[in-house]
Amino acid sequence: MEKLVNGFLKFRSEVFGNKKVLFTRLSQSQAPRALFITCSDSRVDPTLLTQTDPGELFILRNAGNIVPPYGSMQGGTTATIEYAMAVLKVPHIIVCGHTDCGVMKALLNPEDVKNLPAVKEWLSQAETTRRLMRELHADITGNDRLIKTTQENVRAQLEHLRTHPSVALQLRKS
Ligand SMILES: [Zn+2]
Fold it and tell me: Do 136 and 79 fall within a single domain?
């Protein structure tokens, strides 16, 4: 914890001052370049990956970068997407999966989360991914299976995004 507190103190005394023009502008408004949806995993750093500054990415993180289809589970994820599209008019959406994702592992091995009721229910939102892996990719094994699951999951979540009215509207307009 000490490292985190010292990091914040350093930010306040050194970094903030060096970017004062940027932070002053951002204190008034934001116009992010994209909605970036990714896993909560500590090893994924959207701003490092895209070399962006504060204000450039509207970031939505959850376990497994999952987007529930519209209407199946109203909550923070759906509200964040709606705000990004309808209010901020964010022009792009990125869904980013990652290697060694614990959620993708759990999708392949449901036994791992049998004592985690909230995670288990959340994973039901990735049933498409699970079904695709079982029906179309039964021959893929080992780490390749985990990688394929991650890729299929990103594709499935892109499809789910289209069910959100705010996304569908913007797609139709573009
Ligand atoms: Zn993950």
Answer: yes
Q: What is the pLDDT along the chain (174 residues), one digit of tens a residue?
A: 999 999 999 999 999 999 999 999 999 999 999 999 999 999 999 999 999 999 999 999 999 999 999 999 889 999 999 999 999 999 999 999 999 999 999 999 999 999 999 999 999 999 999 999 999 999 999 999 999 999 999 999 999 999 999 999 999 998
Distance 25 CA to ligand 1 centre (A): 33
The single-letter code of the amino acid at 152 is E
pTM (two decimals)? 0.95
Q: Give the residue numbers marked as catalytic.
A: 39, 41, 43, 98, 101
Which residue from 88, 94, 24 is spatially nearest to 52, judged by alpha carbons?
A: 94
Residue 63 shares a structural domain with residue 91: yes
Q: Are residues 67 and 101 part of one domain?
A: yes
Task: Print the domain residue range for 118.
Answer: 31-173
CB 89 within 8 A of CB 32: no
